Amino acid sequence: DAKTTQPPSMDCAEGRAANLPCNHSTISGNEYVYWYRQIHSQGPQYIIHGLKNNETNEMASLIITEDRKSSTLILPHATLRDTAVYYCIVREPPGTASKLTFGTGTRLQVTL
Amino acid sequence: DAGVTQSPTHLIKTRGQQVTLRCSPISGHKSVSWYQQVLGQGPQFIFQYYEKEERGRGNFPDRFSARQFPNYSSELNVNALLLGDSALYLCASSFLGLGMGSYEQYFGPGTRLTVT
Question: Residue A41: pLDDT above 90?
């Protein structure tokens, strides 16, 4: 599995955009970038995924660099309920085992 | 629609005992995966089952076993419990299994196992 590197923690003021970076310099050409988050004492929640184009859904936007070696998850207007651990995951290519390999993630603290 | 459900919510066992954890996937999902999350770490993959067959296994000892039933629910069994087995055990369901596309996994709330 390609490994990911994330900062251990970040702070964000409520109402501001939260930009969470992830490095995945060893990503293979057909591996996807996935983001999950885990609010305290709950199971991880799927947020968004992408291959090489930028993606947006109702929760967040995902920006993947052209060389695909890094990505940024953007929460456009963070709220207190977005306080969680955010995991950036690179999934194995289709046709092989596609389990999720979690790292230690980024702990995002949204404050008033 | 109900999400992934797991039982029990919490469990306390003694070293050497055996434990069975249960998971019901989202209706229509045929694949169930199990993860172990030790305090302060990210979840670690244990098993994936699809259509009642094991389709993937993580780096866990043979004390860990699982099965999937015809209704796609699943059980995770852990024998000869060790203190280090204390963790949050998460179940995730997905529409398809390993090597079958990029469908996301949906997690249940987990079972908190404490081994004393």
Answer: no
Say yes or no: B100 contacts chain A, CB-CB below 8 A. yes
Residue among A69, A70, A63, A67 nearest A17 (CA):
A63
Q: What is the pLDDT of residue B98?
A: 54
In chain B, which residue's Cα lies nearest the Cα of A31?
A: B102
Note the pLDDT tens digit of each residue in B30-47: 889 999 999 989 999 999
How far does chain B reach from its first CA to its final CA, in angstroms? 37
User: In the beta sheet, which residues pair with residue B33?
Assistant: B48, B92
CA distance A57 to chain B (A): 14
